[in-house]
């Protein structure tokens, strides 16, 4: 039995069969953008720099306040919460200040789990 197309010659069915065999759907690949390595690297860099802030500058009074707070906490053996800046982000750590090393300019801390940390004087923003 021959199927007749719009024109009665069967061409519509021939072309449909022809293209059904040769067309492959690429799925989601057709919707993904083409990225060259330079664009991908630039996007990774911009994502890593998102949300970064410049290092806050502390005045002499802030340094004296930090020094006094740390000295009092060391005398009373109580934990402190250090807020520090690193790589454009601020972090908090709660620990006991075990020692203040003036030569290396760093605090030596012991957290509640017994882990030892070193924190540079330069990166500390505040102490509570």
Polypeptide structure, described:
The protein has 128 residues and is an alpha+beta fold. The protein has two domains: 11-49, no CATH class; 60-127, Roll (SH3 type barrels), CATH 2.30.30. It is built from three helices and five strands. Strands 4-3-2-1-5 form a five-stranded antiparallel beta sheet. Strand 2 and strand 3 form a beta hairpin.
Order of helices and strands: HHHEEEEE
Quote the distance from N terminus to C terminus: 90 Å
Radius of gyration: 33 Å
Which residues sit in consecutive blocks of at least 5 with pLDDT less than 50? Answer: none
| Sheet of most strands | 5 strands, antiparallel
- The average pLDDT score comes to 84
CATH topology assignment of the largest domain: SH3 type barrels
Q: Structural class, from helix and strand content?
A: alpha+beta
Strand order, largest beta sheet: 4-3-2-1-5
Q: Any guess at the CATH architecture of the largest domain?
A: Roll
Number of helices: 3
The CATH class of the largest domain is Mainly Beta
Quaternary structure state of the chains depicted: single chain
Query: What's the number of extended β-strand segments?
Result: 5
Tell me, what's the shape? elongated
Residues in β-strands, percent:
25-35%
The helical percent reads: 25-40%
Number of structural domains: 2
